[in-house]
Amino acid sequence: MKILIADDMEGISGVVDWRHVGDDPGEYARFRHIMTGDVNAAVRGAFKGGADEVVVSDGHGSGRNVLVEELDRRAKLNSGSPSPFSMVSGIDQNVDALMYVGYHARKGTLHAILCHTWTGSVRNVFVNGLHVGEIGLNGLVAGHFNVPLIMISSDLAGCNEALDLVPGLETVAVKKATGRFAAEVLQIEEAQARIEAAAEKAVLRFKNGDHGAPLKTNYPVKVRLEFDSADLADGAAQLPGCTRVDGRTIEFTAPDMPSAHRSFRAAATLSR
Amino acid sequence: MKILISTDMEGISGVVDWTHVDSTHAEYNRFRRLMTADVSAAVRGAIKGGADQVVVTDAHGSKTNILIEELEAPARLNSGKSGPMGMVQGIDDHVDAAFFVGYHARNGTLNGILSHTISGKAIANIWVNDLLVGEFGINALVAGAYDVPVLLVTSDQAGEAEAKDLVPDITTVVTKVSTSRYSADCLPPKRVHQMIEAAAEAAVKAFASGKAPAVLKTVEPVVVKIEFMHSAMADSASLLPNARRLEGRMIELKADTMPEAYRNIRAAVKMAA
Q1: Could you give the ipTM of this predicted complex?
Q2: Are residues A108 and A141 in the same domain?
Q3: Mind telling me the catalytic residues of B?
Q4: How many CB pairs under 8 A join A and B?
């Protein structure tokens, strides 16, 4: 059994501020070590649960955060950017199940640490009318390859966002936000013990067929992308084949979810 | 008669270095004044030649270079970035003919001041339907999609040669003779202004009497090939939904029309940057 662990940084244990995830070099160095610890906890749990192979896909920023020298020796690491499937790089390589570590809620969520959707400029994303953040977007790409999401670690808001999409999902809320930049956080060892236990349980449940269905959407995929201001949509409107809906919004159609994901990433880049 | 003047900066009188055309550098303020003066000379010539409307499109960088307070009346100014038509913003609005002022040769040209194609960092070469083009060719093809001929180009001798290859009967003003990418024998700006005014007047008069250079056209749909400086740039640009990866540094884009092809080219450059 092969597990892909897609990591991000905002939902890592202890993180509450942009300085922790890149803006301040010293703070970032602390939290990439903790991030590697959270990921290792999930790797240990996955193997305990019965996984034969674990691949970690580093999904934060340019995908160069996890300290490979501290990574559990049994795991492989997809690192660097851009890669074909970005935050779920490797999802097309015969993966059986997907776990999220350190994920965060979509932009605008109440009481969610560093909530955003891909870049700071994206306000809302709808995939065939479904309001999604990165949890949904990447989950739908995994669904294209029939890979179910079986576990998430995040703050409470991120866990709830995932549960809306995959009821019964194994979740670990490593913090409970009281604002976008404030949270009650679990102590790191405690958080990582819970991640390990949840990962083990998720794999055991998966083996028994006790897991949610892969996330799917209808094809072709219609994506509606709303930005914070009109200049951002002016830039994104350069996406070939897209339609300008209004000042802040573009829409495009893609044949399948991986194509939609690529076009979404292109539009986000063009908006800047 | 309505004339659109698309103006870039590298081919302006006296410009030989990136510091001259970079808004974060002190030298830039001198050269945006000279740019406004080169353009104003073209405006005067167009009016003398019989144009009743002149629109200037600021086409360099963030497109806020021209000093509007010094721009020759009665020209209007298209200013600011992200216009749908890019360097020829306004070309779709009932324009009869175009001038390209301050243009430069495409990337890689021998002895062409600041030679590059859209992005000096990202682009090695661009082909439109297998025609190797620089900004002159791309923008002239977009103008051509609206049946607008380019009557006049001002540039160094390399930009002149590139324009004449595509539009043999175009009127030209050579503002400097380049001896490398960063050195040139520059004519005095006052002399250049006289030359531009006279050339613009003559070009518009010839156009009015039916002796315009040919409109530059290409076959539609359009196949664009872009060669980037290195492969990571092509990795990023490959995210565009109509992109096809040809090899490490190259992608191909198919577009229904030339204006759409131009938008695609700009999108690819932005993805790569």
Answers
A1: 0.88
A2: yes
A3: 116
A4: 48
